[in-house]
Design goal:
The complex is a heterodimer of chains A (about 375) and B (about 270). With about 375 residues, chain A is mainly beta. Helix content of chain A is about 0%, strand content about 40%. The chains are: A mainly beta (about 375), B mainly beta (about 270). Chains A and B meet through strand 21 and strand 24 of A and strand 5, strand 6, strand 8, strand 9 and strand 11 of B.
Chain lengths: ~375, ~270
């Protein structure tokens, strides 16, 4: 047996090469319990090509250190977005997910964003987007003359001089100004190159939207979308008020407004950026999960949400006013997809004296 | 695997646990067993980079480590098992996992992010997951009976219930680290039962074993953990800046015997 990295001879009982230290590759390990077999599409094909399978989470591992696959891709369907992958391609042309990575889902049902090789290339319309880098990935786009993208101005990293950018008019923009959200959306028209990034170590999440699909995204996650993706926002209806002396303050754990992106007539591409690692799961109808409010990245519009307070068995600590003796959660229930990020901020006012809130359930342990 | 003789075992170089010869990751700490230890010439060993989705076993429970930028620790608590943690590291949980609070004397004096310092307890059966607020890695430290470990405050992610918890005030570092607001160290002690302790280090984490009497100077903000036998004293270094007089710089002098762990990035979190 020889090392695939340096060619040194390796004895059967060695786990790594004495010449270069690379791990010895043996017969592939059996897939982890709970993983969805790669050949099984999570959703049935509901229409003849072009395939209109909605994106469903059955992603593969984030495999920055995974060994190069020595396998001939035979094509198939992307586990992340359902896109058709032609024979010989190693990654999904629509969302960039690598094909050959082992699919991994944690035993509790959370799946990771699919592994993506550096420089993975996505196609939308006649344009392309390359995703570069691993810590703070950059979306590097090559726009065709007829294609356009829009974004909030602070995520622009660089662009060709000939690319035209203009502000986009938005109905209801003044409402966003109130809540401190970015008011100005900027539009860039091809042809030419333009690139985007955000100032946080994390992951880029490509969300291809099929015609008729929509997704709800928590504020500040949006990076860039293609011109045919429609952008709207709605009141989250998730709030609580705290009282401190005569001062009453209203807090919005997931923001006052939430973004909704939809593709009304033609498919589009949406790119999000979130901090740390991203996990996705599909909730069955009526299935519930508690997540930290600021960890939410996106959800299907069919997923309902509300506040949930848990009061631990706290003894004397329950008397401590500023802690409130409780945990604040966002309760999500299915059916539909939910995505969370592993980096999140604490909720402002969480420790305050809560006097009122939107609909919430309580649990006293 | 079935006919493996007792001698055909591999010892994890990170936590000393014994594993089956065919194992690729340590059962007790998740360290990969099929790559060699990364030790620098000066003697610092990199904390093992835990592979995505690795499963760690403790008591009747398991922990799965997910992600490589800001890894999340997902615990599947067995019946009767419990873990304790600071409440702000919870990421998600099953609706039916009960929460309670560890009764600590002095916890009210020690405030964190405007709240009293409270250690929460989750009891099995059920699932609950944890993560921290910045790029880094999980340091999994299975504690064998009779171990005593001091950890930088707010650096521990979770600990199994077999481990005794207390905290001590570090007097010498008071003025240097947090502008006179005091600094505590968490102390974890095992008696007769082994337990699992998971820390989150910012950036990369390195460990070194100091011989008795051997010393190393460390930037105080980089300190992550030490065996309690290792002593820590702050020393001021006079930096000469020519015409403009001098500046003082504080370094922590750590003296063996025992392990010391440092992190390569130090975020000053919301400590009071």
């Amino acid at each position: 047996m020889f090392c695939v990295n340096c060619g040194n001879q390796i004895r059967d009982d060695q786990n790594f090469c004495v010449g270069c230290g690379s791990p010895v590759k043996r017969a592939p390990a059996s897939p982890p319990v709970g993983a969805i077999p790669p050949a099984t599409a999570p959703q049935p094909v509901t229409a003849p090509p072009p395939v209109t399978v909605p994106p469903r989470a059955a992603p593969t591992a984030y495999a920055a250190q995974a060994p190069e696959p020595a396998f001939q891709p035979s094509g198939g369907k992307c586990s992340w977005c359902g896109g058709v992958i032609a024979r010989g391609q190693t990654s999904c042309p629509r969302c960039g997910a690598a094909l050959a990575m082992p699919e991994e889902i944690s035993k509790s049902g959370w799946a990771q964003l699919p592994g993506r090789k550096d420089m993975a290339k996505l196609q939308f319309g006649n344009s392309f987007c390359q995703i570069e880098g691993a810590y703070v990935p950059v979306a590097d786009m090559k726009l065709a003359p007829e294609d356009s993208v829009y974004f909030t101005h602070h995520v622009l990293l660089w662009k060709d001089p000939q690319i035209n950018i203009a502000t986009m008019s938005m109905k209801g923009g003044w409402k966003r100004l109130f809540s401190g959200l970015p008011l100005i959306m900027t539009q860039a028209q091809g042809p030419g190159h333009i690139a985007f990034s955000k100032d946080d170590p994390g992951e880029l999440i490509p969300v291809p939207l099929q015609a008729g699909e929509a997704i709800d995204v928590r504020e500040h996650m949006f990076l860039v979308a293609t011109g045919n993706v429609q952008y709207d926002f709605f009141n989250t209806g998730i709030w609580f008020t705290t009282q401190n002396g005569d001062d009453s303050e209203t807090h919005y754990p997931i923001g006052m407004l939430m973004d909704r992106f939809s593709a009304p007539s033609a498919p589009g591409l949406l790119l999000l950026h979130a901090g740390g690692n991203i996990f996705v799961r599909e909730l069955r109808a009526g299935e519930a999960i508690l997540v930290k409010p600021k960890a939410l990245v996106f959800k299907d519009p069919s997923v309902q949400m509300q506040l949930h307070f848990e009061h631990p068995d706290a003894g004397i600590f329950g008397m401590w006013g500023s802690w409130g003796g409780r945990y604040l959660w966002l309760l999500l229930y299915g059916p539909g997809r939910v995505a969370i990020q592993s980096v999140f901020e604490p909720v402002e006012g969480e420790g305050g004296r809560i006097t009122n809130s939107s609909y919430a359930t309580r649990q006293q342990w | 695997m079935t006919d493996a003789a007792p001698l055909e075992r591999i010892q994890c170089q990170w936590c000393q646990s014994m594993n089956e010869k065919t194992a690729t990751a340590c059962r007790a700490c998740g360290a990969p067993l099929d790559i060699r230890n990364l030790v620098s010439e000066s003697g610092w060993r990199e904390a093992p980079r835990i592979r995505d989705m690795t499963e760690i076993h403790f008591s009747a429970s398991t922990c799965q480590v997910e992600g490589e930028i800001v890894p999340a620790a997902e615990i599947n608590l067995g019946p009767g098992d419990s873990i304790f943690f600071e409440h702000h590291v919870m990421l998600w949980k099953d609706v039916n996992v009960p929460l309670s609070v560890l009764q600590l004397s002095g916890g009210l004096k020690r405030a964190f992010a405007g709240m009293p310092f409270i250690i929460s307890v989750a009891t099995g059966p059920g699932r609950i997951a944890f993560s921290r607020d910045a790029t880094g890695e999980l340091v999994v430290l299975p504690l064998h009976p009779g171990m005593e470990l001091d950890v930088r405050e707010h650096a521990f992610l979770l600990s199994s219930h077999q481990i005794g918890y207390s905290f001590i005030r570090v007097k010498g570092l008071t003025n240097i680290l947090f502008g006179g607001q005091g600094m505590y160290m968490d102390r974890f002690v095992t008696t007769s039962t082994p337990g699992l302790l998971i820390l989150h280090g910012y950036g990369n984490v390195f460990e070194r074993r100091l011989a008795a009497g051997e010393s190393i100077m460390v930037e105080p903000g980089a300190f992550l953990y030490k065996d309690s036998a290792v002593t820590m004293e702050v020393e001021f270094q006079k930096l000469s800046t020519g015409f403009f007089g001098g500046a003082n710089m504080a370094l922590a002098k750590m003296t063996g015997p025992g392990r010391i762990g440092i992190q390569s990035m130090y975020v000053h979190h919301r400590s009071e």
